[in-house]
Automatic annotation (TrEMBL):
Protein's UniProt name: Glycogen accumulation regulator GarA
Key words, A-Z: Membrane, Signal, Transmembrane, Transmembrane helix
Domain VWFA: 76-260
Domain FHA: 406-455
UniProt source species: Candidatus Venteria ishoeyi
Spans traversing the lipid bilayer: 339-360
InterPro entries: FHA_dom (IPR000253), SMAD_FHA_dom_sf (IPR008984), VWF_A (IPR002035), vWFA_dom_sf (IPR036465)
SUPFAM superfamilies cross-referenced by the UniProt entry: SMAD/FHA domain, vWA-like
Superkingdom, natural source: Bacteria
Gene3D superfamilies assigned: 2.60.200.20, von Willebrand factor, type A domain
Keyword Membrane attributed: yes
Residues of the signal peptide: 1-19
């Protein structure tokens, strides 16, 4: 699956009358496999009302975004506390109290982390833990340092957050804004946060009457990364409006999705430009409508043409024939290959037929045949007709029928004794009535078959085939 990711910060700030128009940041992804463009956007300063439209070529559509948090969306919030001076124990204690208040606003889609920093960075709760875990880890926060590397450790936290899978990430920095870094600058932190799509919310705690560089450092960090700068009063208490809704801006905006197959339907391929426009009402002058736009380039892949199939030879009983349409495109190796395929197929078919013949041909039956003396006064002589039985599955012996009935069975008292386990003791008999021959089943176990069909009593004719158990008998009758 291919994704093209572009994170776009809109830093320009429009003005109308005396009020500023809000900033917007957007993370746009093109999913080429699903032909979808999706943009996760959020406000840097939330407007009173807004609508969104999308411009593709000459067409403009209104879009209804999915509010954040959408399905499977997650937010990472990293609490970073300055513990660099033991004299700030009272401030650090206020930091702990405020973090507890912030955690009361935690929502199911939010994950947390906690760290303290001075000259070293100490991870107290790793990224991805619950609000409860962070609250339990607050007991480890102690003001016991003597120097601070604000920018260096901010960069370290940014590197940690880059490895987290959440859609949105933010650092809540509790500090007085004073930094003793020599190799890392404020601008480096801002640029790293922007590149990693991380907002920094700065919470300033300043000594009464000593607002200086620290104040401006924290303000620059927040404004430069789309976060928010909040400072405490002289008693180190943060505004109640922030403490009750601390993550409101972080959860602003939503998800815009646009199906790119609409471009394909209009025959637009290659690189195409899509323009997203936010329309919002100025907070100071409700009647004035303003807008803010960004353009996103997408790549629309044209479906590949179907390959022409390889010409197929027409095979007759005499030779292989190439049609006129594919005569020029068929080369000699293809002809030889296809000829071999048909030749091998023909040989295999012949072998299968031969094997079937060997498997299913009738095998000789192991049966001993004995004929009794036909001179029996109780039997009826046959005159004017010559008929006989030929035992084809045994030794091929022939029994001439001169008197009837002719009894057949395994018992020695029969006229024809067949010593085979599939033959009953008194299996059947052949009769001659009204110049016609008949076969009768005499309550045998395996029955009597005439030309493959089981019968009880029926006429037999010249060429009929009888099956007495496994013994096959041909009935032959010759007219005078």
């Amino acid at each position: 699956m291919n994704h093209h990711n572009i994170f776009i910060f809109l830093f320009c700030c429009f003005t109308s009358a005396s009020a500023e128009i809000p900033f917007i940041s957007a993370d746009c992804q093109q999913n080429e496999a699903a032909d979808i463009l999706s943009c996760d956007y959020r406000w840097w300063i939330k407007p009173l009302a807004s609508s969104i439209s999308i411009h593709v070529g000459q067409d403009t559509f209104s879009i209804s975004p999915t509010p954040y948090p959408y399905v499977d969306a997650k937010t990472m919030i990293f609490f970073l506390v300055d513990v660099s001076d033991p004299k700030r124990r009272r401030v650090v204690q206020k930091n702990i109290e405020h973090i507890r208040l912030l955690l009361k606003s935690a929502k199911p889609h939010q994950r947390f982390a906690l760290a303290g920093f001075a000259s070293q960075l100490e991870i107290l709760a790793p990224p991805g833990v619950s609000a409860k875990t962070v609250e339990e880890s607050l007991a480890k926060v102690k003001a016991n340092g003597f120097s601070t590397k604000l920018y260096e450790h901010s960069l370290s936290v940014i590197e940690l957050l880059k490895k987290s899978p959440e859609q949105r990430k933010a650092i809540f920095l509790f500090s007085d804004g004073l930094a003793e870094d020599k190799e890392t600058s404020l601008q480096q932190v801002i640029e790293a946060a922007r590149a990693a799509q991380i907002q920094i919310y700065t919470l300033g705690y300043f000594k009464p009457g000593k607002v200086g560089n620290g104040y401006y450092n924290l303000e620059a960090l927040a404004k430069g990364t789309g976060g928010e700068f909040i400072h405490s009063n002289e008693k180190f208490v943060l505004p109640a409006t922030f403490l009750t809704k601390p993550f409101q801006r972080l959860d602003s905006g939503g998800l815009i999705t646009y199906k790119l197959d609409l471009l394909k339907d209009n025959g637009l391929f290659g690189k195409q430009s899509i323009k997203l426009t936010w329309h919002f009402v100025n907070s100071q002058k409700m009647t004035e409508q303003s807008s803010f736009s960004l353009e996103k380039s997408v790549t629309i892949t044209q479906p590949q043409a179907e390959e022409k199939p390889t010409p197929i030879l027409e095979i007759t009983s005499e030779k292989a024939v190439v049609t006129k349409e594919n005569l020029e495109s068929v080369d000699e190796p293809i002809i030889k290959k296809q000829f071999l395929i048909y030749l091998i197929s023909g040989i295999l078919i012949i072998l299968l037929i031969w094997l079937s013949f060997l498997l299913f041909r009738r095998k000789p039956v192991n049966a001993t045949i004995s004929f009794a003396d036909s001179e029996n006064l109780s039997k009826k002589m046959i005159e004017g007709v010559s008929a006989y039985l030929r035992f084809t599955t045994c030794s091929g012996e022939v029994y001439p029928i001169t008197v009837t009935p002719v009894s057949i069975g395994r018992n020695a008292e029969n006229d024809i004794q067949l010593d085979n386990v599939t033959v009953s003791a008194f299996h059947a008999e052949i009769c001659y009535e009204n110049c016609r021959f008949f076969i009768r089943d005499t309550n045998s176990t395996n029955g009597v078959l005439l030309d493959g069909k089981q019968v009880e009593y029926t006429e037999i004719e010249n060429g009929s085939q009888l099956e007495i158990g496994e013994v096959v008998i041909d009935f032959v009758m010759e007219s005078p």
